[in-house]
Amino acid sequence: MDWISCINTYIRVVEEGSFNGAARRLNTTSSAISKRIHWLEERIGVQLLKRTTRSVTQTEAGALFYQRAKDSLDRFQSIIDETRSVNETPAGLLKIGATIAVGSKFLVQYLNDFLIQYPDILIQLTTTVPGQLPDSNLDVYISREIETLNTLSLKQTSLFEQRIGFYAAPSYIEKYGVPQSIEELKSHNVLNWGERPQREYKIAKNQRVMLSGNFATTNPEALFYAAKNGMGILISNDIMIKEDVNSGALIRILPEIQAQDSTVYAYYPKLDYEHTRTKLFLDYMKMRLAQSNEDGAENA
């Protein structure tokens, strides 16, 4: 027996909830599973699992071991995949994190072509709510600049500039008209991102303005749906709603005024070597975004 096979067996037992389930997953017998777990517990010197005739549950030590062991095996597999990809086709799991809005409204549209180009790469996309720090095991995290991420353990590279503007559906404009100034905008129903229906925004020349409405949400899909259905004026960056603008579902208003721009970055671990999958993904995203900017300039 060896450490890796026994640790992998333990992980399968926990995830399947039984020795029989783990045996089916690993194509072996329940007796073999039991021997591996016994070997592991003897070597570590603590009981990892509580066994009854009906169930298998983790001890406190077992729960800690499971999480650490799973993370370690994932990293080990990543090292194997990374080493193989030097002379072979890039392969393995790429863990990407992003804020909900970036992940659901922006990032997903680019992933299909990347996966077609690199069919042996698998992507796991995890989204976070505003203010939530990303998981430390991610290969890439995409977000506006977060000061706490600017540490010695992470590198960052800029992906694109968010040009924030004001948008409304034709049905809203037909009913309430188009505001011609920031002062007029204050009297309109503004859909706000966040937990409060009132929010302060920075606009050009460092001016601050308080805008409010009757609807606020931390769900980007709900926010964009509300805007397209004429509930109010949406404040968004142009990349997120490019398709809605092109289709006429949303119309840019107050084009001469825009909220303060911000940069979206990709954060990734600072390692002695650069993961092939990570580098390929970042190069691909920069290339696609550059093409998108060129297309936008031509159509402007």
Automatic annotation (TrEMBL):
UniProt keyword annotations, A-Z: DNA-binding, Transcription, Transcription regulation
Stretches assigned to the HTH lysR-type domain: 1-59
Pfam family, one: HTH_1
Record-level Gene Ontology MF annotations: DNA-binding transcription factor activity; sequence-specific DNA binding
Signal peptide: none
Biological process (GO), any one: DNA-templated transcription
Family classification: Belongs to the LysR transcriptional regulatory family.
Stated name of the protein: DNA-binding transcriptional regulator, LysR family
Provenance organism: Vibrio hangzhouensis
